[in-house]
Write a structure and sequence with these properties.
Structural class: alpha/beta
Distance between the termini: 21 Å
Family: In the C-terminal section; belongs to the trehalose phosphatase family. Belongs to the glycosyltransferase 20 family.
Protein name: Bifunctional alpha,alpha-trehalose-phosphate synthase (UDP-forming)/trehalose-phosphatase
Shape: globular
Number of strands: 17
Radius of gyration: 23 Å
Number of helices: 17
GO molecular function: alpha,alpha-trehalose-phosphate synthase (UDP-forming) activity; trehalose-phosphatase activity
Helix content: 40-55%
Bound molecules: adenosine-5'-diphosphate-glucose
Organism: Ancylomarina salipaludis
Strand order of the largest sheet: 5-4-1-6-7-8-11-10-9
Oligomer: single chain
Mean pLDDT: 94
Low-confidence stretches: none
GO biological process, one term: trehalose biosynthetic process
């Protein structure tokens, strides 16, 4: 296979400027981990926004950043504050995000946002086109860049294009709400291979292609004139071994080397060994169902008062999209609910919810994953949800229970979790009780199946399966053109 390039909204580095020094901090997220192996192995470039608005840096500094990134085979797309506001905070996060997560009431239909989305997608496509040669392959990521596949295909048809959507693809009845639904589908259809996390999203996409464009679909192929497009499900995984190893390392550390958080957690259990911890980790996003989770925890404490004083919910929320109105309101709502639960059920020695509104270092996440008896993962919509997989990978003693929303893509791979409807507060409350009282043997039985499955299809398997399909597409394209 020839070169494979990556395009995503963000480059896999953030930039730290200190005095005259430019430091590149590698991202540790799942996407960066999975893709780093791909573009390095196939001698490609990674094209994306470096994370700094272009108005904040003068030309000299911009050149130096560019050079530094180029040493890492990264190419920057420069975006101004205004472009970020309209394309990223705007059309990506105020229009597509709510639409694709079924929050129709939150959609912003401002045509100015759409215009900026088209222009910025064109910027990404043009930047990629400067690098691309006929015969190359490119893998484009996510909802911010839905128009890029077609923008590249129309200029360089000999490039093999893959597109992967990390969020849900909604049903046609929801997608049709958007004035620019056809343009979005047309943009995606510039790709030769389109990937989703689950078969359901694939099915929804097909139905929109049929209804909006009238194209025929057979099995997983769309035929358009002399082109074939393959659409498939590739459930994204995590770097399983990294989580497993980090979790087992924690238990081997001598007491004096253990982190403050770890010692605090041990103290918590020492106070009363029958105490239990429930963990909740997300970006603070309305799609994650955080208010319902808090209401369900309060209902659980009310219905099962024997657990008051014995069970704590540790809730981490990473600040996210803080300039968008609905996120600001959500933050207030969550803070109020946390206050209510703690006010109603807490006392001097007992705080029912420990709430942290911040990002946490990897080691602390591992400590929490491995110390908490139950993971409460209740999004109202989620493309996949990697937190559920990270919890499974970190359970080295093979106990622990996951309460999981049926609306998360990951539920398709986790039949052994306690599956709930995230809008059913009573059901979540009862599942908390069931999880906390589940016999250890049953926990292990379920966890063994989960771990085997999540380990087998990790992030490296995910990216290599996608690359394999891209290589098949390249062969199909070549044979079609040879005819
Ligand atoms: P997200 O919506 O960001 O991703 P998710 O898949 O759960 O959701 O990933 C969140 C990541 O952030 C996890 O790796 C987690 O460890 C980390 N994280 C969460 N809280 C943290 C905290 N307080 N401190 C530090 N790290 C924290 C989007 C889609 C998902 C899809 C992924 C990947 O919305 O549905 O699973 O992309 O495709």
């Amino acid at each position: 296979m020839n070169r494979i390039h990556i395009v995503s909204n963000r480059l896999p580095f953030s930039i730290n400027l200190k005095d005259d020094q430019i430091d590149l901090i590698p991202s540790v997220g799942g996407l960066a981990t999975g893709m780093r192996s791909v573009y390095k192995e196939y001698n490609g470039k990674w094209i994306g926004w470096p994370g700094l608005p272009s108005d904040d840096i003068d030309d000299g500094l911009a050149d130096r950043i560019e050079k530094k990134l180029f040493e890492e085979d990264c190419i920057s797309v420069h975006l101004s504050k205004r472009e970020i506001e309209l394309y990223y905070d705007g059309f990506s996060n105020r229009t597509i995000w709510p639409l694709f997560h079924y929050f129709a009431q939150y959609i912003d239909y401002d045509p100015e946002l759409w215009e900026a989305f088209v222009n910025v997608n064109k910027k990404f496509a043009d930047k990629a086109l400067e690098t691309l040669e006929e015969g190359d392959t490119i893998w484009i990521h996510d909802y911010q860049l839905l128009l890029v596949p077609e923008m590249i295909k129309s200029k360089k048809p000999g490039v093999t294009i893959g597109f992967f959507l990390h969020i849900p693809f909604p049903s046609f009845e929801v997608l049709r709400i958007l004035p620019w639904r056809k343009e979005l589908i047309q943009g995606m259809l510039g790709a030769d291979l389109i990937g989703f996390h689950t078969y359901d999203y694939q099915r929804h996409f097909f139905s929109s292609v049929r209804r909006l464009m009238g194209y025929e679909i057979s099995f997983n192929q769309i035929q358009i004139e002399d082109r074939i497009i393959i659409v498939d499900a590739f459930p994204m995984g995590i770097d399983y071994d990294k989580f497993k190893k980090a979790a087992s390392d924690i238990f081997q550390k001598p007491l004096q080397e253990k982190s403050k958080l770890h010692r605090e957690l041990e103290k918590y259990f020492l106070l009363s060994p029958d105490r239990k911890l429930i963990l909740s980790i997300d970006r603070l996003d309305y799609s994650k169902g955080i208010p319902n989770r808090l209401k369900a925890f309060a209902k659980f404490l009310k219905d099962y008062p024997e657990f008051v004083g014995k069970v704590t919910l540790i809730m981490l929320a990473v600040p996210s999209r803080g300039t968008v109105e609905h996120y600001i309101n959500l933050k207030k709502e969550v803070e109020e609910l946390v206050g209510n639960v703690n006010g109603q059920f807490g006392n001097i020695n007992y705080t029912p919810v420990w709430y942290f509104y911040r990002s946490m270092p990897f080691e602390s996440l591992i400590e929490l994953y491995s110390s908490c008896d139950v993971a409460l993962v209740t999004p109202v919509r989620d493309g996949m949800n990697l937190v559920a997989k990270e919890y499974v990978a970190s359970r080295t003693n093979r106990t622990g229970v996951i309460i999981l929303s049926e609306m998360a893509g990951v539920a398709k791979e986790m039949g052994e979790a306690l599956i709930i409807n995230p809008n059913n507060i009573n059901e979540i409350a009862d599942s908390i009780k069931q999880a906390l009282t589940m016999p250890l043997d049953e926990q292990r039985e379920r966890m063994i199946f989960l771990q085997d499955r999540i380990k087998r299809y990790d992030v490296f398997k995910w990216s290599s399966e996608f690359v394999k399909s891209l290589s098949r597409m390249e062969n199909i394209q070549n044979s079609l053109h040879a005819k």
